[in-house]
Write a structure and sequence with these properties.
By secondary structure, the chain is of the alpha/beta class. It contains 16 helices and 19 strands. α1 links the parallel β1 and β2 (29-32). α1 packs parallel to α10 (222-231), α1 runs parallel beside α16 (440-456) and α12 (288-295) runs antiparallel to α15 (411-424).
Length: 469
């Protein structure tokens, strides 16, 4: 039997963050990953004709200097690519035409996205009373606070385009906790945000870091691959599945299926960073309620379609991040990201690259088409929305049968079952994008924070923190 200080099950960005955070604290860590590569949904590839494709998350936004230091320590800071400034421009589809999202009070006044009554309705937000309900859907919450039109035209496409969610079933308390808490705190979003800002600790004066939208040379998978190298080949078990986890002698024992053989691994600490359904199977025997809570988290299907065109074949200037499609527009896609505008090197010279998201919780049926029909549908959407002409120079389709976990009604209550599971099983921890935030940066941060938490609590007593990582 092999022994480690900590074993992390799941090599997505949450598990990698946890493994790296524990490694930084001096722990001997084993990462167990069921697939042939680390990164989870972060998957990049380079085509023969010079396109760099990210088949899951495409960019990350951060201003965390600790993250930049981690990149330096991992040897990838010089490979970080900052997105073009035009990425700040974002579009919403209105009557089949991409319209710029207003980013200033003057822009809000002029935008055709909202009627004048709707613009005035937004200004009345501080006068709307708070809810006394324990939770609401995103659609109901924003319709009540800022009006139906803003909720339908701006919030709806954001939820479906960024989280692959349906705003009518997504929990605002779970998906947008800071906004929910602001209303509870101040009676309105605006007053609550002001009160929260006033209560926050004063930051030292001086230059403050600015948010950066970034990727890497070679795609986002550069990041997880660098973490795997830091852990070491012997401590990253690919194509290996954790089949069981149980308490033994004050610690934990894992049964791992690896290379057709069954291996036992012992550890003081186990971090389950696998998808919710996989984690449910592992904890079923110790807590049926937690397993049920995990299995009730929906993961709708998603398809990601990359299209490459010659620049002159695209009528739209593609001068921004991309365009999102409100459900009221009746389109077959959730949104189209203009990848080569953000990261010019993602397409060969004279070409553009787009990334289209199809399916999700709002229109899952669109992913059930054949590969050829699905790609043809996306090409038609490009022709109608962006004025694309002719046959694309490159097409690529990625299917995710279980894509992004949905924070639906009751999600906060389900998460309490996981808190109880951890409390009753010392040394067992659950991290993942189904818990406390979906974004890549949040998932990484949760893992890093876990290592620091265990060090503070003395659960890594025999380990010596190191600055080498």
């Amino acid at each position: 039997m092999t022994s480690y200080d900590c074993v992390v099950v799941g090599g997505g960005i949450s598990g990698l963050g946890a493994a790296y955070g524990l490694l930084r604290q001096g722990a001997r860590v084993l990462l167990v990953e069921a697939s042939a590569q680390v990164g989870g949904a972060i998957r990049s590839m380079r085509t023969e004709d010079g396109y760099t494709l990210d088949c899951g998350p495409n960019t990350v936004t951060s201003k965390d200097v600790a993250l930049w230091q981690a990149f330096s320590n991992l040897g990838v800071m010089d490979k970080r690519l900052t997105a073009d400034r035009s990425g700040a421009r974002r579009y919403i589809l209105l009557n089949g035409k991409p319209e710029l999202i207003p980013m200033s009070p003057a822009g809000l006044v002029k935008t055709p996205l909202l009627s004048m009554p709707s613009k005035l309705r937004v200004l009345a937000e501080p006068l709307i009373p708070r809810t006394h309900l324990p939770d609401e859907s995103v659609s109901a919450f924003f319709s009540r606070r800022v009006g139906h039109q803003l909720a339908d035209r701006l919030v709806d496409p954001f939820v479906s385009g960024v989280y692959a969610g349906d705003p009518k079933s997504t929990s605002v308390r779970a998906a947008f906790p800071s906004i929910w808490e602001a209303e509870q705190r101040g009676g309105s979003i605006v007053r609550g945000m002001i009160m929260g800002r006033n209560r926050a600790p004063k930051k030292p004066k001086g230059e403050r870091p600015k948010s950066v939208l970034f990727n890497f040379t070679g795609g986002l998978s550069t990041w997880p691959q660098a973490v795997a190298r830091a852990l070491g080949d012997d401590n990253v078990w690919l194509n290996s599945r954790a089949r069981a986890v149980r308490q033994q002698d004050g610690g934990w024992e894992l049964t791992v299926e690896r290379d057709g053989k069954t291996e036992l691994v012992s550890a003081d600490i186990v971090v389950l960073a696998s998808p919710a359904a996989v984690t449910a199977d592992l904890v079923e025997g110790m807590d049926a309620a937690a397993a049920k809570a995990l299995r009730s988290i929906p993961y709708p299907p998603m398809a990601v379609v990359h299209l490459g065109y010659k620049r002159e074949a695209m009528a739209h200037p593609l001068d921004g991040f991309g365009v999102l499609c409100p459900s009221g527009e009746g389109r077959k896609v959730l949104g189209i990201l203009w990848s080569s505008t953000l990261i010019p090197s993602s397409a060969p010279a004279g070409h553009v690259l787009t990334t289209t998201f199809v399916g999700g919780a709002r229109i899952p049926e669109t992913t059930r088409q054949s590969d050829a029909d699905l790609v043809a549908m996306v090409i038609r959407e490009h022709e109608q929305i962006l004025g694309a002409r002719g046959k694309p120079a490159m097409t690529h389709l990625t299917r995710w049968e279980r894509a992004i976990p949905q924070y639906t009604a009751g999600h906060s209550r389900r998460m309490l079952a996981l808190v109880q599971l951890e409390a009753e099983n010392p040394g067992l921890f659950l991290v993942g994008n189904y818990r406390d935030g979906l974004s890549v940066e949040k998932c990484w941060d949760k893992g890093i924070a876990l290592g620091e938490q265990l060090a503070r609590q003395g659960q890594l007593r025999q380990c010596t923190p190191t600055s080498a990582f």
